Amino acid sequence: MSESVKYVLDESRIPKTWYNLAADLPAPLPPVLHPGTKQPIGPQDLAPLFPMSLIMQEVSTEREIEIPGPVRDIYRQWRPSPLYRARRLEKALDTPAKIYYKYEGVSPAGSHKPNTAVAQAYYNKEAGIQRITTETGAGQWGSSLAFAGALFGIEIKVYMVRVSFNQKPYRRALMESYGATCVASPSMETQSGRAILAQREDHPGSLGIAISEAVEVAAQDPGANYALGSVLNHVLLHQTIIGLEAMEQLELAGDYPDVVVGCTGGGSNFAGIAFPFIGAGLRGGPKPRIVAVEPAACPSLTRGQYAYDFGDTAHLTPLTKMHTLGSTFTPPGFHAGGLRYHGMAPMVSHLKELGLLEAVAYHQLGCFEAGLQFARAEGILPAPEANHAVKGAIEEALKAKRDGTSPVILFNLCGHGHFDMQAYIDYFGGKLVDQDYDEAELAMALSGLPSVHV
Amino acid sequence: MSESVKYVLDESRIPKTWYNLAADLPAPLPPVLHPGTKQPIGPQDLAPLFPMSLIMQEVSTEREIEIPGPVRDIYRQWRPSPLYRARRLEKALDTPAKIYYKYEGVSPAGSHKPNTAVAQAYYNKEAGIQRITTETGAGQWGSSLAFAGALFGIEIKVYMVRVSFNQKPYRRALMESYGATCVASPSMETQSGRAILAQREDHPGSLGIAISEAVEVAAQDPGANYALGSVLNHVLLHQTIIGLEAMEQLELAGDYPDVVVGCTGGGSNFAGIAFPFIGAGLRGGPKPRIVAVEPAACPSLTRGQYAYDFGDTAHLTPLTKMHTLGSTFTPPGFHAGGLRYHGMAPMVSHLKELGLLEAVAYHQLGCFEAGLQFARAEGILPAPEANHAVKGAIEEALKAKRDGTSPVILFNLCGHGHFDMQAYIDYFGGKLVDQDYDEAELAMALSGLPSVHV
User: Fold this and answer.
1) Domain ranges (residues) in chain B
2) pLDDT tens track for B81-107
3) From the CA of A250, how many Å to the nearest CA of chain B?
4) CB of A386 within 8 A of CB of A78?
5) Number of Cβ within a 10 Å radius of residue B252
6) CA of B425, closest CA in chain A: separation in Å?
7) Class for domain A5-14+66-110+234-447, per CATH?
8) Helix-helix angle B364-378:B421-428, to 10 degrees
9) Model confidence band, residue B117 (pLDDT cutoffs 50, 70, 90)
10) DSSP bridge pairs for A262
């Protein structure tokens, strides 16, 4: 049996800085606009929601941003995360490709999300903030922020998309175990929530609505800030520790990727694995192919419009230019809740426009099949979101077999599936189907994009 | 904020041998007896169930037993597991004690069980075995053997205690994700199962019954063997990698434990952390206090009888001398399924008789409270079984505070609680109570102990 191999890094080699891709972009990001005036905003416009340290990271063009000591101390609990050579999977696929995967499921919350949750909690604590509000879909982000809040003594309030709140009581219980409060969204606690419920009493909720509620509460409470688990530049920045570590670990293995694969919902785990490699390419190094894998039922990168749009449903957030399906778009209820967002991180969208990444969309059944093949070969059961990256990597490996090439494939396994067993039960029971979004709904959502002339 | 500290070991320092406490025992274990003749059995008597390599480990008195290369290759996927200094918990308790914990939840199945599952699958594969049957309670063992079976290409069939089969569909789904078959026990597939169901159609099952079913099937199928997840000497042997690593990690930390704490169900995770330290003491080294923590509702060490008994309900297994509540004893349905076994590992029982360990029993509410305090301080949510060890360690730390001493406490955090969220939901909802076993039932179970004169 050819064994899969783990590449560890000495703790002393945990990166001391995050990597900021903005420093190396060939063209700057389009400006962020005020939702009312539609004019570019300044740092002060974001001050009701975020500490100034995070706002400055959001707009920074410095290449390396120091990871504060206390954040590194906590990272050390599970970092450096392992990088594996998936030899058993290679053998099962009978592929000449080399497959490496970085595994973020070793964090206490089981996903990559604590990388930014810990950083955001730290900066908020430094700024004297006592409470943070946030939204969560499947619950990976909410439980990660709850974890970070417990460590820093910050109260966490999570608005959880109602359909997930009802379907995923275990994620909610994990948040409560860490001492956080979890509320089904839309709720009666906010104006945004009440407005939605007035229209439809049994509204299942959406990430866009939950963001509106969390933002509304934070904006009105001087002791509270808001935190977002993906999309924003500073969130993507914090996740680059994934790719930076992977780079060092691949060096130990004596390899460099020809293809880097990540799944994309809001874009943060993808950015985490990919940005350091994209940046190295932009600075004259090798240029691996970069592949973003998204769900066919919520295909912002492959079917969305590159346009200014709101991040939330109630239109409280600033306008950012991104690939969007429209802020009112509601994707079908497939099982990768972390990928059910109408927009894409502006920086990831920008890279797509610059031709620096490829995007591909897969339906869920093929992703579950790929995830189970991976589990039986490598022993780790991926989260449904991560199955999209597994599927992308397997497709690359099978293509290599057809083409007779032997590329080095690197993908990010962003979380384990231990909280997603119902999805696997539904898959085994034949209850899952490959759903497509509604074309008419997409057209309507896109027709509602705000008109902006910058 | 004083940070909790992780002690890692270079992969090259994963132990190359397991430690066999039998080599250092001041008195040998009482013999194992044939269930029919009640005479001591020989290796051949066990051959229908186990490969000869494991049988020889069962009776070996060699101190160091080599870990085969392919087993070490798989261990490397998650080993060495981290040892943490729980500084944040120390601070929360305001204790002068130093608290260290070894964390086995980093394995792909989320507990210590793969340490022996991988070894047992390897030896069975070497012996040409195609199928392994086993039992499981809460499902940690079953899913670990399913994981190991997937890696070695062995079919795994798991008889899962019916009440858990119904209550814990997610553990079952994890086994199925790894390709294993999972059957509710008692089942109609075996004579043992049918006999029980004839008496009571809706029997909730027990570990003892599930063992009977798995043993019966393996004994009748020449291509199949049986595997047990705890209790037996060779299982405890494989778990000693936990304590051996901890010893090296504590050396890095410059400490040696004054107290070693583990939770006990069948005894394997406890043996894993404790045996290397007990052995070092027996060979003239320091003698830490060794504390076994068991559930008050299933208190084999503190309330059981030290006597010959069967390991299963249908009395198919050999007789071993152990602390037992009687093989027909059914504990109340508390939430640490992995600790609901009527017997205790013969070697752990023997140590208790020799005065080499202390045993203490706690009710579940206090254990959940301890587990949540731990989670909010250290960021890891323990399994309900592991909460017993946390409770034991916290009690030691609070005692140190009262006494004004500063002992070094080491405990084993044998698994995470991500599959046990329903237990936490029940706890939060006030649905859990501290159940006691039925004294009359215990008396009846004990009165049925087989009469043996050795």
Assistant:
1) 5-14+66-110+234-447
2) 999 999 999 999 999 999 999 999 999
3) 16
4) no
5) 12
6) 6
7) alpha beta
8) 110
9) very high
10) A292
